[in-house]
Amino acid sequence: MLALIQRVSEARVEVDGERVGAIGPGLLAFVGIEPADGERELARMTERLLGYRVFDDEAGRMNRSLNETGGGLLLVSQFTLAADTRSGMRPGFSTAAAPAIAEPLFNRLAEACRARHRGPVETGRFGAHMKVSLVNDGPVTFLLRA
């Protein structure tokens, strides 16, 4: 399981002109699920999303987590993160989990984050063509692996 996280001032997801998820300050996480991912990866990614220290403390150092700040978390499924890009000029997607495996795991990730986080947890719409808007704060972007 991979998550490309970005510290944001705000972010939102629209599907067919309808806003389906939005947050103020917090993290936007694009989540890619691989075929071998399961409960262990889900638990680890939940821990990392909520505990990764990318927010400034009083001294201006990245030393506070999403759980500490109470900021929002916007989870967006993105199978292209799990693509094989090692060769050629076109990505291969055999390294991404099939939707029948990925969707329930993505939904459980959102549920786990909601259960452990006091701030808002929003999602995009799995499998939809989404328009994601964000204001990256920093910019601060990290690729997490569970």
UniProtKB/TrEMBL annotation:
Signal sequence, start to end: none
One GO CC term on file: cytoplasm
SUPFAM superfamilies named among the record's database cross-references: DTD-like
Alphabetic keyword roster: Cytoplasm, Hydrolase, RNA-binding, tRNA-binding
GO annotation, biological process: D-amino acid catabolic process
Chain location of the short sequence motif Gly-cisPro motif, important for rejection of L-amino acids per the record: 138-139
EC number: 3.1.1.96, 3.1.1.-
Molecular function via GO: D-tyrosyl-tRNA(Tyr) deacylase activity; Gly-tRNA(Ala) deacylase activity; Ser(Gly)-tRNA(Ala) hydrolase activity; tRNA binding
Localization in the cell: Cytoplasm
Reaction(s) the record says it catalyses: a D-aminoacyl-tRNA + H2O = a tRNA + a D-alpha-amino acid + H(+); glycyl-tRNA(Ala) + H2O = tRNA(Ala) + glycine + H(+)
Highest taxon above the source species: Bacteria
Family note: Belongs to the DTD family.
Subunit record text: Homodimer.
Biological role stated in the UniProt entry: An aminoacyl-tRNA editing enzyme that deacylates mischarged D-aminoacyl-tRNAs. Also deacylates mischarged glycyl-tRNA(Ala), protecting cells against glycine mischarging by AlaRS. Acts via tRNA-based rather than protein-based catalysis; rejects L-amino acids rather than detecting D-amino acids in the active site. By recycling D-aminoacyl-tRNA to D-amino acids and free tRNA molecules, this enzyme counteracts the toxicity associated with the formation of D-aminoacyl-tRNA entities in vivo and helps enforce protein L-homochirality.
Domain notes from UniProt: A Gly-cisPro motif from one monomer fits into the active site of the other monomer to allow specific chiral rejection of L-amino acids.
Name this polypeptide is given: D-aminoacyl-tRNA deacylase
Source organism (scientific name): Vulcaniibacterium thermophilum
Gene: dtd
